[in-house]
Structures are given as C-alpha cells and as structure tokens.
Amino acid sequence: MDQSKDIFGLDSKYNIDFQEVLRFGNEKKKVARRRWAILAKALKSPSESQPSSPTDEFSVRRISSFMLLKTQELHVVPIMSPENQYCDQFKKRTWYKYSTRVNGTDYFINVGHRNRTFSAEDLMGFNNTGNVCIWPSEETLSYFVCSNLGHFLNKSVIELGGGMSCLAGLFVAKYGNATSVTVTDGNKLSVDNVQTTIKCNEFDIEVKCHVFKWSSFEPSYQYDVILCADCLFFDDARADLIECLWNCLANDGIAYIMAPERGDTLDKFILQSESRGFICKKIVNYSTVVWEKRLALLDNCDYNDNIHYPVLIEVTKF
Ligand SMILES: C[S@@+](CC[C@H](N)C(=O)[O-])C[C@H]1O[C@@H](n2cnc3c(N)ncnc32)[C@H](O)[C@@H]1O
Asked: 260 and 311 in contact (C-beta within 8 Å)?
C-alpha cells in the first residue's frame, strides 16, 4: 500500500483514493475466501488437515481391504451342534461367511461380529485394535495360507495376535491338514469371539483358542509354524513379541509374518529379530494376485504403500 495513505485509502488531505479502497477490499475478500477454503477442506476431510501417521488407525483404515475376501451376511446362525442353538453368545453376533477363491477353489470360514458396542472398560483395557475389524494383513495372510496349504501339512501351527477372527489360523485348521492348530490373542474379547466362531464352523481337528500375551513367560510348546498379522507396530510390545516367537518356534520351524511397513516399524522388527538370532526374509511380491490388487490401488489417492501394503516376512532360526 502507498505509505502516504492510511488503511482506509485517505491521503493526508483526506481525499479518498478509490483505487486503493477497492484494492484493500479485494485483498480482505481474498483472505476471507482463503480462510473459508481451509475450513471447508478441514470439515470435508479431516485427514487432509493432518499429516497421515503410519500407525494411526484412521490413516490405516482409509484402505480397509484388498478385495481378496468376499463377505456375505448369514441370516441363520451357522451353529454346528444343536445343543448350542439357544445360547445367547450366538444371537449376540451378526454372522458373515468370509470366502476366498484360489485357483478356482473356494475356501470359507463363518465369522461372528459382536453386535454390542464396546464398554469404556473394553476400550481402556488391553489393546483393542483386534476388535475393530479384520485388518488387510490378516486378509492377505489368509489368502497366502489358502494359496500354500502344503506348508501346513502335518505341522503344529499357532497364530499370535489373531484379533477378533484369527482368520488365517482358522483357514489352516479347516483346509491345511495340520496336526494341531491353536489360535490366540492377548485381548479377551477377541478370544471370546473366536471361541464362539469356532463353534460355528466344521473342523476335522480340535482347534484350541486361548488368551496368550506375548509377555507371558510360561514354558510354552514349540510350534512348526507361527502365523502373525499386523502386530509389528506396537513399539512397547515388539521386544516381547520377538522373545515370544523365539520361545514358541521349533528350531526347524518357520513364522509367516504379514505387516505393512508402517513407518520404520517393520524394519525395526527385522533388526531386533536379527539381533535376537533370527533369520528374516522380507518378501514384497509373495502372490501375483495380491500384487495385482496392489498395482490397481496405486491410482487411489487414499492408498499409501507404506501404510497399507502388507509385506511378508519369513522368520526362521537357522
Ligand atoms: C492390529 S491388531 C491385528 C489383529 C489381526 N491379526 C488382524 O490383522 O485383523 C493387533 C492385535 O495384536 C494383539 N496384541 C497387541 N499386543 C499384544 C500382546 N502384548 N500380546 C498378545 N496380543 C497382543 C491385539 O489384541 C490385536 O488383536
């Protein structure tokens, strides 16, 4: 602005410079318009006003599936044994059939979703992330399991941190011809849900399901195969998880661990595991079908490889 005039465009003799007044008015309008634009953007999409965090649930949930699982709501509770049909635990859930097709063959598991909303105690207690949904890493791990059923033949298998479905472990139990399958999580609500789910599916073997926290140092059985999906981003629990893997994995066993990079959390897991004595093989392209789904998602502006794409790590002792 011309320094000889005041903010209203008046010069020292109080003559009005209309050009100056118009310029000032336009400048104010522009600022106001800019402010409204920022506010509208924030209201329309809160994510645009915040940087996405690789471990923040909201950022991760922007891509909720790789479309490898078909979900169909079941209108009749798929109870296997008639004596269970009057139990409330079945009615308190909505039932879905999760199916996946691999090389022309369909594989499915019925999964219950709790209808009840979570109490404050549920939310503030042990980590609740496994009760939110079936995460894409569990989905891609399930697809990997169904594509490689031979890996589980005559093996003892455990899933760690399997959340509300332990879906990958249940696919092994139903189709993998394993000698034993145990599915676990540290969260009691997740485990209750999986125990109910197990009663609504047919298995040829007994499927064990219990609460298992990675920090518990109970002398544990050593398994041929360990499955684990989306459990690497907990900074506080990573060392416990690695120690638990070490205690639970047989010397000639293998752990299939699926997780997105999520910042540097996956690399931290690999580094810490290698210093514990593990050999880690990071496999980005482990399935042509999953890879094609990834390529299709690259055009989606909500998709971020680092946050969303589940990478496979094969972990062995020797
Ligand atoms: C992001 S969820 C993944 C759940 C499931 N694997 C999926 O991908 O849908 C992480 C899971 O790890 C479990 N978890 C976290 N810390 C744990 C711990 N210290 N011991 C056992 N489980 C734990 C949580 O209860 C939760 O179910």
From this structure: yes
